[in-house]
Design brief:
Oligomer: single chain
Helix content: over 70%
Distance between the termini: 72 Å
Order of helices and strands: HHH
Number of strands: 0
Structural class: mainly alpha
Number of domains: 1
């Protein structure tokens, strides 16, 4: 059975990164399974939120597996690198799509509200 081959600070950092990776996977899983929950960090079309969640699940899992492997002395596996290279475009494209969706929504709301007539405004002191 391979043992941990690092010093104390490397072990603490590795354990922290494993916990961080599992947290990212959990957070992405919430967005993947429930895309319209109010406490989501990203809003937009359902497909964009789900692709963001999938990207976070993949990155978090790859990070946790890679760091756990490094803690026990194994070499980094190439599938984890491939997963990270595949998940990064998912995150970038989904964030870009969410930003475009938010901008279009704000633009439509602002344009529709500009031409209202007959309304009165009250001031609260």
């Amino acid at each position: 059975m391979p043992g941990i081959r690092t010093d104390l600070w490397d072990t603490i950092g590795g354990v922290f990164m494993v916990i961080l990776g599992l947290g990212c996977a959990w957070w992405g899983g919430l967005a993947l399974l429930r895309p319209h929950r109010p406490e989501q960090p990203i809003t937009g079309p359902v497909w964009a939120v789900r692709s963001w969640g999938l990207g976070y699940v993949l990155l978090g899992t790859a990070l946790a597996v890679r760091m756990a492997g490094l803690l026990v002395g194994a070499e980094p596996a190439w599938p984890m690198t491939v997963i990270q290279w595949g998940a990064t475009p998912l995150l970038v494209c989904s964030v870009a799509a969410a930003l475009v969706h938010r901008r279009r929504t704000r633009h439509r709301a602002g344009r529709a509200g500009r031409h209202k007539t007959g309304g009165t405004t009250t001031r609260v002191l």
